Amino acid sequence: MNYLTFYLNHFRMELPHYKVIQSKKPLKVLVKSNTKQIRPYVVAAVLRDVTFDSARYASFIDLQDKLHQNICRKRSLVAIGTHDLDTIQGPFTYDALPPEDIKFKALNQTEVHSAAKLMDIYSTHAQLKQYLSIIKDSSVYPVITDSNGIVLSMPPIINGHHSRITLETKNIFIECTATDLKKANIVLDTILCMFSKYCSNKYTAERCEVVYPDGAVKLYPELKYRKETVNRKKVNSYLGISENLDSLSSALSSMCLKSTVLKESDVVVVEVPPTRHDIIHACDLYEDVAIAYGYNNIPKTLPKTTTVGSQLPINSLSDKIRNEIAYCGFNEVLTFSLCSKDDVSTKLRKPFDTQSTVRISNPKTLEFQVARTNILSGLLKTVSANKKMPLPMKLFEVTDVVLKDVTSEVGARNERHVCAIYYGKTPGFEIVHGLMDRIMQMLNIKFSSESGNTYQIKAANDETYFPGRCAQIIYQGNTIGLMGVLHPEVVTAYELTMPCSAFEINLEPFL
C-alpha cells in the first residue's frame, strides 16, 4: 500500500453536509420594479459568527475575484457583494435609480460621490474600468441600500465603504445581483459552502427572503442536494473497465460524492451536494469515476473495427514548425478562437470585414463576438496580459483561423496560420525576419525572385504595420502573409508601450 492510499484510508475527513438555517425573522431584500431595466434578480444569505484571520480573509476576497472572472463572466451575469452585517440594518432595498440620485462613499474612497462621478473616477482604474460598460449607458444604475438609506453596493461596479468586510467582521451579509438567476444561485452556494466551515456552527447558512414587486417571495440560499444513480454495467461499458459496485462507490467517495450501493438494482446512488453544480447528468458521474480510477489505468484495447489511422498532414507540419520555432527561443501560447469585433478591426486599424468574418449571432460577452480571422490580435492580448514579465517577450502560435466560405457545407472554413511576435525595447524586426527565414529553410523553400518552389519578400503598405516597415511574404506567386513593425496605434490599442514586430503566414499552401 502506497502512502497516498494509506492517507486516504486512515485520515479521510467526513464529507460535510451543508444546512440552511431558517430564522424566525429572516432578513428581507425588497426588490423594486425599476431593476427589471438592468439587473432583475438578486439572491442573498447570511454567514453567522465567522472567524477570520489574514489568510482566510485573503482567500475570501480571492474566491470572489475568481468567480467574477469565470462563471460571472466578468460581472456581466452576476455581481457579488459582501458586507459586515453588524454595520447595517435590514430590511434591504434593491432598486435602480438615475446616477445623479445615488450618492455614497465607495470602497476605499475618502469622500462621498455621485454614481456619475464614480464612473468618471473609475474610468482610469486598472481593475474596475473593464466593468463600467455593463451599466454605463443605462438610464438607471442598480443600488442596494439598508433601512437607514446607507448604500451597501452599486453592482456590478463597487461596494460601499461603510459595510466593508474586515478581519473583525463576525456576521457577513452576502448579496448577488444578476441577469441570470441560475448562475446567481451557483455563485451564492459556492461562497457559502467554501466559507461556512469558518462559522461557529459549521456548514450552515442563514436564509434570507427576497420579495419581488409582484409580491412573490423567494427564499435563498437553496443549498439543494439531489440523488443520481450510476449503473455498474453502463460505467464499465463506457469506460472500458470491470469494477464491482463497492469499487465504484469508493471511487465516487474519493471525488467527495457520498454514495450508497444498491446491490439488488446493480447501481450506486450518489448524493450530489451543492458544491457540485457541474454535475448535470449521470455522464458527469461517469467522468468522475474515470478520474478517480485514473485514465492511465484504463486498459488499452484495439478497436472492434479494422481501421488505419494517421496524422493529418496539416497537423504533422504544424508540429514540426512548433518544434522549430521553440528551438529558436520563442514561447508557444494558446489563445481563444473567439474575440471581439474590435480585435480584428479597430485595434488593428482596419475596417470590419463582413465578407470574411464569421459573427456570433447571440454573443454572451463583448470578448466573444466573432471567430478570429488572424492570430496576431490574440498574441497582442497575451503580451498585454503579461506586461510584468521580463523583456523581451518572444511568443508564437500555430493554429486555425476561421473565414467565411460560401462553397463550404457549413459556410466557413478553417485555415492554419503561424504567427510570431517580438516585444521589447527595440522593434526586433531582424529577429522575426530571421525566424520566418528559418521556417522557410526548414520547409526546403529557397529565397529567389524566380518562379517555382521559392518565396519572395516585397515591400507593402498595410494599416496594421508602420509605413515603410512592412513586407508581403510571397510563395509561388501568391501572397501568404505579412511581416513588419507594428504601427504605434496598434501597440497602444492593446495598452502596450514598447515597439513590436510580428509576422503571420498561411501554412495551407505548403501541403
From TrEMBL:
SMART domains: B3_4, B5. Keywords: Aminoacyl-tRNA synthetase, ATP-binding, Cytoplasm, Ligase, Magnesium, Metal-binding, Nucleotide-binding, Protein biosynthesis. It catalyses: tRNA(Phe) + L-phenylalanine + ATP = L-phenylalanyl-tRNA(Phe) + AMP + diphosphate + H(+). Its cofactor is Mg(2+). PROSITE patterns: B5 (PS51483). The keyword Cytoplasm applies. Pfam families: B3_4, B5, tRNA_synthFbeta. Its EC number is 6.1.1.20. GO terms for cellular component: phenylalanine-tRNA ligase complex. InterPro entries: aa-tRNA-synth_II/BPL/LPL, B3/B4_tRNA-bd, DNA-bd_dom_put_sf, Phe-tRNA-ligase_IIc_bsu, Phe-tRNA-synth_IIc_bsu_arc_euk, Phe-tRNA_synthase-like_B3/B4, PheRS_beta_core, tRNA_synthase_B5-dom. It is found in: Cytoplasm. One of its GO terms (molecular function) is phenylalanine-tRNA ligase activity. Tetramer of two alpha and two beta subunits. Belongs to the phenylalanyl-tRNA synthetase beta subunit family. Type 2 subfamily. This is Phenylalanine--tRNA ligase beta subunit. It comes from Aphis gossypii (Cotton aphid). The lineage of its organism: Eukaryota, Metazoa, Ecdysozoa, Arthropoda, Hexapoda.
